[in-house]
Each structure stands twice: as C-alpha cells, then as structure tokens.
Here is the input.
Amino acid sequence: MVETRCVAVVTGAASGIGLAVARHLAGEGWAVVAADCDEAACVKARDMLDGKIVVADIGTPAGAKAAVDAAVEAFGRIDLLCNNAAVHPLEAIEDHALKSWRETFRVNVDGTMLCSQAAIPHMKRAGGGAIVNIGSISGVVPYARGGAYAASKAAVAMLTRVLALEAGPFGITVNCIAPGAIRHGERPEAEAPPANIPVGRAGTTEDVAHLVSFLASGKAGYVNGSVIVLDGGATAGRVRAGGRKH
Ligand SMILES: NC(=O)c1ccc[n+]([C@@H]2O[C@H](COP(=O)([O-])OP(=O)(O)OC[C@H]3O[C@@H](n4cnc5c(N)ncnc54)[C@H](O)[C@@H]3O)[C@@H](O)[C@H]2O)c1
Here is the structure.
C-alpha cells in the first residue's frame, strides 16, 4: 500500500497513457479501477491489470458514477481520481463538424467534471484525496486543426484550478499534467525525436505515470491547482539557430 492512500480510479485506462498509469500504480501497490468505454480494449487490457476494469462512458453522469462507484463498492473508498480519458479530432475550425466539437468537450471536459463530481463526496468523507487531470500542452500552445482539443484542454486546466479552490479545504488536491508528445502503442519508437525537445527524446508513458504517482502521494500535499507541463522543455522557450546547447 502507498502511505494511507490506496485506491485509484483511472479513466481511459484500457489503452495508451491511462493503461500505463493504471499498471504503474498497481505496481506501487494501489488497488486500481480502470474505466474505459471501449469494450474490446477493456477485454484486452484485463489481463494486464490486476485490478477491476469497468466499461463506462465517463462523459455521461451514469458512466462517471459507475467508474467511481466501482472503486467504492470494491474497496470502500477512492483516494485518487486520474481523469485521463479524452478524444482528439483533427479538424480546421472553418469546417469543424459540430458533432465532433461537442463530443470533444463532452468527453474531455464534461467527463473530467462529472468524474470529479462523483468522487469528491467520497474523498471528503475520507478526509482527503487527490485528483490528477491529464490535460495537454495543446491547452497552452495549440496546433492548427486541433482547435476542439486545444480549447477542451485549456478548459481542463481552468477546471483544475477551480476544483483546487473548492476541494482544497477538504484535504483534496487537484492538479493537471500537461504532457507534450508522448510515445506509445502504434507510434513508431524508432522515429527521430522532434528537434524542438531540449532533452532530446519524446516523452514516455512512464514519465506521465511517475508524475501522477507523485501528485497522488502525501509528498505532493502542498501542490494544488497547478498545471504542470511535462514536455522535455519543448515549450520552455525558443531554441536558437545553430544547436540546442547554446
Ligand atoms: N499521447 C500524447 O502524445 C498525449 C499528449 C498530451 C496529452 N495527452 C493526453 O493524455 C491522455 C491519454 O492520451 P492517449 O494518447 O493515451 O490517448 P488514447 O486515445 O490512446 O487513449 C484514450 C483512452 O480513452 C478512452 N476513452 C475515450 N472516450 C472515452 C469515454 N467517453 N469514456 C471512457 N473512456 C474513453 C479510449 O477508449 C482510450 O482507451 C488524454 O487525456 C490525452 O489528451 C496525450
């Protein structure tokens, strides 16, 4: 067990970063409930996760409640909620379909809000907890054709700060990780890292998992309402022509 905190819910955890976070936490001794709307991916992920996996659409009140209730029913509490599930369409604003625009906000923003709404009363009753939202560097520095995603991730960052104000007095910390490019799954590992990353490599799912774990630990008890950029320095500033050392 990790200190007195021991039960985590990770959304969007049947694949990618969410799956890696869930596995990392389980490896640290957390009891983990993974929630994801992709039934086939849940079946595949089940073997990789020791804990429970719940098929749920966290962009609906019922789905968000089902994800949190699964932890409370199985383990009696929820100490960490990691709001990781997201969708990311690529469409220019000029031709953006309203349907995909709304779906992006429904999953990325409503989902974060609804899962937090479901988890906070349990955390309050237990005297504390942690919420870690997975935002994106796109919420700070956007890219063309990523308008819905960027705007939704900026909303997640702001929602993080509001939740930190509201839940902080109850011992609940709320923070947001804003990753840059994270390699996983189908993404080719051999591909050269983008030249604009000062540390010289793309991010890994473990980079994200370590930060989630730290933010969920008692060691991060004074970190609240923060949006932490995790991008190897890619957006720290400009790289001068002539090399990345000077
Ligand atoms: N991969 C990157 O480079 C990167 C960079 C910055 C931020 N992020 C963020 O990290 C998080 C994970 O990204 P990823 O690359 O692993 O994405 P991914 O698309 O590989 O995985 C997302 C998971 O969320 C699930 N999901 C989608 N809608 C859902 C819903 N309504 N209910 C429940 N589950 C749902 C999907 O089924 C999928 O398993 C996201 O919040 C993403 O925005 C990723």
